[in-house]
Design brief:
Elements (H helix, E strand, L loop, with lengths): L9 E2 L8 E2 L5 E2 L10 E7 L2 E2 L3 E3 L17 E8 L8 E5 L11 E2 L17 E9 L3 E11 L1 E6 L2 E2 L16 E2 L1 E4 L7 E10 L1 H4 L1 E2 L4 E2 L9 E10 L4 E5 L5 E4 L2 E5 L3 E5 L6 E4 L1 E2 L7 E2 L6 E7 L3 E4 L5 E15 L8 E7 L15 E3 L3 E3 L4 E5 L15 E9 L10 E8 L5 E5 L2 H16 L1 E2 L1 E2 L11 H14 L3 H13 L24 H4 L9 H13 L2 H24 L3 H6 L25 E2 L5 E2 L1 H4 L1 H6 L3 H21 L3 H22 L11 H9 L5 H17 L11 H10 L3 H8 L7 H6 L31 H9 L1 E3 L8 E4 L9 E8 L2 E10 L2 E17 L5 E14 L1
Parallel strand pairs: 2-8, 14-26, 23-33, 42-45
Antiparallel strand pairs: 1-3, 4-5, 4-6, 4-7, 7-8, 9-25, 10-16, 10-21, 11-15, 11-19, 12-13, 12-16, 17-18, 19-20, 21-24, 22-23, 27-35, 28-29, 29-34, 29-35, 30-33, 30-34, 31-32, 36-43, 37-38, 39-40, 41-42, 43-44, 44-45, 45-46
Helix pairs in contact: 3-6, 4-6, 6-7, 7-11, 11-12, 13-14, 13-15, 15-16, 15-18
Length: about 900
């Protein structure tokens, strides 16, 4: 291989043991220098060569040959015209929907016990015995489920993916998995088994544990085909159908929220033939995302026995996953494992901060509880692979049985995302902050981006809208995010509204009577459908994804514009019976979550007051038009830019004009002549400045007011979900770098480092997630406020894309030193290759070094303002600080 040989070949889809595609995967690789004459592509399909073809780009190239068909095995390579051929990249095509001949099978329905609750029901096993009489050359199991399933061939677990087939909007999308099972087959009789539980399909949704609404029926189902190719070239397919049998399972109950119980002493019994086609299922698709896996194993940092006899295992890190137990004790011994994020003053597990309460629902207690009854076999291990928990601590109850730390491990389970960025600097607190934000994202990247891995674990749109531009700095989230966007589109309401969370297990689009339906369509949440694809386009150059989401984003923005025009907030109706002319562009007359989770005010007795709990009606009715209109401006402006990228010139012009009108309306209503926003909060000023709503002439004044508000709060931040990520960049952009660093290094609450001081290992939902007395509130693993770590990349290290650049074709490295930090280093894996950067200050001189990948140019701007263009290769620059 020469330097001009392309590397990093990949397709844009998921897969477990090997990449698995649909009919037309897109092809990418890292560019090589001097590829001006384009690239040549060579491919073999099932060892048959395809005609060589050419392409100019290296990124997300449309499949250049005829669409592929089911099961094809593809090898391909690429070279720059005149250069050397790359190594081969191989992938397989899944079993495409039209080629599935298997039936959906369901377990024999067990008589429902009164206590049966969805998400707490027993598991089922579906089996088939089949003979193998000739040597097998090739075996592929294609499988999926409505529920969560594991597949086994002759008792061996298939693949390494967990919680398959993942969470999707099951009325429209379900993904299948493909695995090579040749190694598990034997001559003679073989057993294929699918173990099936409620999962996301029939489990509980959200804080109030509502039953999922994907189906009115009680069933779960699985579908599988085992394709065998023998040495003699003949083939056979073993498919799910009425010849499969339904068995009980040792899984006594399983659900993603409440945990899993297994009784290994129970003998599994055959119940009769599986039922066929009793569910309505969507077509089979192949996921663009990497699978969920067990990505790390952690031993307890301590294992303590309480007076009660219970054990508390501390794993030193809040994460998503489960506990594996290697010693189950003598036959009949029961071990109960509960999972939580916090300990009370005596060191016992305290999960009460994760309970939820709402009028009409009463108190919903969170209980992440696994149980195992031992069969006494030395080889038995407990691993609850039909559930997942958010926890740092486990309370283990097993009577007088001893427990050794060597027998307890935390299995960290999340989507197996490839790391994309790294950051370190001379300040250990900032390094730790970066780490806990990274852990928070991982803990909330379990097949979809969730809000928290315990209380709700649903894909709230607002949370990812806020975090996606940070997520792209931490991991390659391209496929993961495209998968989630499919759900967001699937869940869109007929009127254009975007569901609060996706996959929307409540199916608000079919249940307008639900209370959550009236709270659907919020600024900052639904706007994810515009912002998230835009970030994918900017980061990965995925123009197709803009096209895929275009209709959905347009319908959302059109709904918001119509709502602005037709509905008014009561306070404005009171002001004038007839709307003022600009009001048609104020989005104030429908429900908004608002800034959400700003630092809480204190009551006279010193306790913190939650505005929603304190007075739900007042909170609900509050005028949130400032937030609504600002987001309407940003989404309409972004839509105009997207239209331009897609060559929809008329739409681009129309939305650009509308954006101006919305911006004008926002200024008339919410901006005073002195640069203050009507809602005189830090959040409102940050939003106004970072969204470009404040005219140039008033920016200094608006920023000065922001600083004043920060100072009035004793140099504390006052932002919540929506604007925390933009606070520090806005301060730097308006010339207040010193204030930005003072806030970053603030230690008293509310602050980021204050979280560290109170022991946070992930980012908290509330600024006071653990108060000064050590009591916990709300979730201790919510990533939104951790979006600040993007600032560490873009400002402290100083690495960002150049304005207007796409897919990192050009970047700016502009270190913004501050807070006494003397060096920073990091890298970022871009579609062009990896950019490395380091800076160090010594004796009043800053030295900036790094490497630039081929096909990228950068501008390094030193603190003294000197700008230098750098291109492929290493660079080193120095200047005064
Ligand atoms: C969730 C959030 C979500 C919010 C809606 C909360 O209960 O945990 O993260 O975005 O509700 O405002």
């Amino acid at each position: 291989m020469t330097e001009t040989t392309p590397t990093g070949l990949r397709i844009d889809t998921g897969g477990d043991q090997f990449p698995v595609s649909g009919a037309a995967p897109r092809l990418s690789w890292l560019p090589v220098p001097d590829a001006a004459r384009g690239y040549e592509l060579l491919a073999h399909v099932d060892d048959v060569p395809l005609p060589t073809t050419t392409t100019t780009g290296h990124r997300l190239n449309a499949w250049p040959w005829h669409p592929l068909t089911s099961g094809r095995r593809v090898r391909w390579r690429v070279r720059a015209a005149g250069g050397g051929w790359s190594d081969e990249h191989a992938f397989e095509v899944g079993l495409l929907d039209a080629d599935w001949s298997a039936e959906w099978i369901s377990p024999v329905a067990l008589a429902a016990a009164d206590s049966d609750v969805f998400g707490k029901r027993p598991g089922h096993s579906l089996r088939r015995i089949f003979p193998v009489s000739r040597p097998v050359r090739h075996a592929r199991l294609y499988s999926t489920a409505l529920g969560v399933y594991e597949a086994f061939v002759n008792g061996e677990r298939v693949g390494t993916a967990e919680l398959s087939p993942g969470t999707t909007s099951y009325d429209k999308t379900v993904y299948a998995q493909a695995a090579d099972v040749a190694g598990s087959l034997v001559a003679g009789d073989n057993t294929v088994e699918l173990v099936l539980t409620d999962g996301w399909y029939q489990g509980q949704v959200g804080a109030f544990h509502a039953r999922a609404a994907w189906t009115d029926g009680d069933d779960i189902a699985a579908r599988a085909e085992l394709h065998l190719t023998f040495d003699d070239g003949s083939t056979e397919i073993v498919r799910t159908d009425a010849s499969w049998t339904s068995w009980t399972s040792q899984i006594v109950r399983a659900g993603l929220m409440d945990g899993q119980a297994i009784d290994l002493t129970v003998e599994e019994v055959e119940l009769g033939p599986a039922r066929v086609d009793v569910v309505a299922a969507p077509p089979i698709s192949w996921s663009p995302a990497p699978p969920v896996r067990r990505v790390e194993e952690r031993s307890p940092t301590s294992l303590t026995r309480l007076d009660s006899g219970d054990w508390i295992a501390d794993f030193g890190q809040n994460a998503s996953g489960w506990v594996r137990l290697d010693d189950l004790g003598p036959r009949g011994s029961r071990t109960v494992i509960e999972h939580g994020e916090h300990l009370d003053p005596v060191g016992d597990l305290d999960m009460s901060h994760l309970d939820s309460e709402r009028e009409g629902d009463g108190l919903v207690v969170l209980d992440q509880r696994d149980e195992v009854v031992s069969d006494g076999a030395a080889s038995s291990v407990f691993e609850p692979r039909h559930t997942v928990h958010g926890f740092q601590y486990a309370r283990i109850r097993r009577g007088d049985l001893p427990l050794s730390p060597a027998d307890v491990t935390m299995q960290v389970v999340n989507t197996d995302l490839a790391p994309a960025g790294a950051f370190r600097c001379s300040d250990d607190d900032l390094n730790r902050l970066y780490e806990i934000a990274d852990w928070s994202f991982r803990g909330n990247a379990v097949d979809i981006p969730t809000d928290c891995p315990q209380r709700e674990r649903i894909g709230w749109t607002g949370d990812y809208q806020v975090f996606v531009s940070t997520a792209v700095r931490l991991f390659d989230v391209h496929g993961f995010t495209r998968k989630w966007l499919q759900s967001v589109r699937d869940d869109q309401l007929d009127d254009g509204r975007i569901a609060n969370f996706s996959p929307d297990g409540r199916q608000v689009k079919r249940h307008p009577e639900l209370q959550v339906a009236q709270m659907t369509g919020s600024a900052g949440w639904g706007d994810a459908i515009v912002h998230v694809p835009w970030v994918l386009y900017e980061t990965y150059g995925d123009r197709d994804e803009l096209g895929t989401n275009w209709r959905a984003m347009q319908r959302w923005v059109d709904w918001a514009l119509t709502t602005a025009r037709t509905r008014r907030h009561p306070s404005r109706i009171e002001r004038s019976a007839e709307p003022l002319p600009h009001e048609e562009f104020l989005w104030d007359g429908s429900f908004h979550w608002g800034e959400w989770c700003e630092p809480k005010e204190r009551a006279e007795d010193g306790t913190l007051v939650d505005p929603l709990q304190a007075n739900p009606m007042a909170w609900f009715m509050e005028d949130k038009g400032e937030v609504g209109t600002a987001y309407l401006f940003r989404s309409t402006s972004t839509l105009a830019r997207i239209a331009a990228v897609l060559g929809r010139d008329a739409d681009a012009a129309r939305y650009a004009t509308l954006a101006e009108q919305v911006g004008d309306a926002w200024r008339i209503e919410f901006l005073a002549d002195d640069g203050r926003t009507a809602k005189d909060t830090q959040a409102a000023h940050v939003r106004a400045l970072s969204f470009g709503l404040v005219p140039e002439a008033l920016r200094d004044a608006a920023a000065a007011r922001l600083v004043e508000l920060v100072r009035r709060a004793g140099t504390h931040l006052g932002t919540g979900f929506l604007s925390t990520a933009d606070l520090l960049p806005t301060l730097v952009a308006t010339g207040h770098t010193d204030v930005a660093y003072e806030l970053l290094f603030q230690r008293t609450s509310p602050s980021w480092l204050g979280m560290l001081d109170r022991g946070a290992t992930t980012i908290w939902e509330d600024w006071d997630g653990v108060d000064e007395d050590g009591r916990a509130f709300a979730s201790l693993n919510h990533y939104s406020k951790g979006a600040v770590v993007r600032f560490l990349h873009t400002h402290l290290l100083g690495l960002d894309q150049a304005p207007g650049s796409v897919a990192w074709e050009s970047f700016v490295l502009r270190p913004v030193p501050g807070g006494g930090v003397t060096w920073a280093e990091g890298h970022y894996v871009t579609p062009q290759g990896t950019i490395e950067a380091t800076w160090r200050i010594e004796d009043g001189t800053i030295t900036v070094t790094g490497t630039v990948p081929a096909g990228t140019t950068g501008t390094v701007v030193l603190p003294d303002g000197t700008a230098t263009v750098v291109s492929a290769g290493a660079f080193r620059l120095t200047g005064a600080v």
